[in-house]
Design a protein that fits this description.
Layout (H helix, E strand, L loop, with lengths): L2 E7 L3 H12 L4 E5 L5 H6 L1 H19 L14 H21 L1 H4 L3 E5 L2 E4 L2 E4 L2 E2 L1 E7 L3 E3 L15 H4 L8 E5 L3 H12 L3 E5 L10 H13 L3 E3 L3 E8 L2 E8 L2 E7 L1 E4 L3 E3 L6 H4 L32 E7 L13 E7 L7 H6 L5
Parallel strand pairs: 1-2, 1-7, 2-3, 9-10, 9-15, 10-11
Antiparallel strand pairs: 4-5, 5-6, 8-16, 12-13, 13-14, 17-18
Bound molecules: flavin-adenine dinucleotide.
The site of flavin-adenine dinucleotide has 35 residues, from helix 1, strand 2, helix 2, helix 3 and strand 4.
Amino acid sequence: MSSFDLAVIGAGSAGFSAAITATEQGAHVALIGHGTIGGTCVNVGCVPSKTMIRATETLHHANAGRFAGIQTSARLTDWSAVVAQKDELVARLRQSKYLDQLDNYPGADYLSGPAAFDRDGLLFDGAPLHAGKIIIASGSRASVPAIPGMAEIPYLTSTTAFELEELPRSMLLIGAGYIGCEMAQMLARAGVTVTIACRSRLLPEGEPEISDALRGYLRDEGLTVLDGLSYERIDKDEDGIALTVRSGDGAETLRAERLLLCAGRRPNTDGLGLDQAGIDTNGNGGIAVDDRMRTSRTGSTPPAMSPAGINSSIWPHTGPRSRPKTPSTAMACFTTTMPCPPWSSPILRSPPWA
Ligand SMILES: Cc1cc2nc3c(=O)[nH]c(=O)nc-3n(C[C@H](O)[C@H](O)[C@H](O)COP(=O)(O)OP(=O)(O)OC[C@H]3O[C@@H](n4cnc5c(N)ncnc54)[C@H](O)[C@@H]3O)c2cc1C
């Protein structure tokens, strides 16, 4: 059986960050990645979104005409070329920031395949793998809201919306967190007629004053922003989709060519076998943690990991600079009750990006 000081499940930005930090302190690390190396940020998150936002910002600024005596204009001629340029940047950064980095950290072995737990400990690709500590950094994916009729609707998520070779005439967004708001503005600036339909308000985790101000800016740019709604049902119609919503003013049907779901993210914990490992989850599938981000897994003895008990820690991660209240992405560190190797303390005391 392969044996490592640390196993990191998930080779996204959090997993890489954790693995690099541990190798720098002398640990022999198994970095286990399933899916495209680099995970969300470089492939389908920060990098593609900020690229597309910046691209459409040039249209916006050129057409805003804010200064007397200066005439500018710009128009979109080929959306597929914008998408291709974004894809090229993503591929380049995935290579330089992730794949190439593996050579720089010989203490980390990259293992391509799924990790999971059974009652005896950690499995890689179905086979036992021994690690003194385990960090779970398995990321998240777009969640699909439970609206009657949704099963029949060909919806987009932020991931698939970035792949569209042609823009639709109109887009209805469900949800208005930061991903929904930035996608909505980017699409509107590219010429799509955008409607945002949300249950509470824009950026519901932020201050209400920020929601109000942002709603004003987006409306000034021509977006329709509808908040305080409940979703009654969704259907296909001849022009696309029809979402029936209810507000204080009664029921209303919103129509658009395409639907984009930005209704939050769901942790990738389903296939991990957390229940078998005795790791508690919360209502949305995220890993329940204590104030030091340790999981509930204590005191048992999985032979593949340690003959002693297990403590564990979790840090949420949404990128290098932000730390949300809710761990949509979970990083858990299991620590045996045997003496920790010297590199473990800094990892446990502070998250790798702090
Ligand atoms: C559209 C969008 C825009 C964003 N913009 C920003 C931004 O501007 N700034 C910012 O800070 N953040 C942004 N984020 C958030 C940021 O991308 C994520 O918080 C961050 O990428 C999460 O990193 P992670 O390593 O925790 O997870 P991920 O990057 O998702 O990596 C997890 C990896 O684990 C793999 N995995 C899952 N299960 C297993 C398993 N069982 N075994 C092995 N591997 C597994 C997954 O396939 C994935 O590759 C954005 C996100 C999105 C969707």
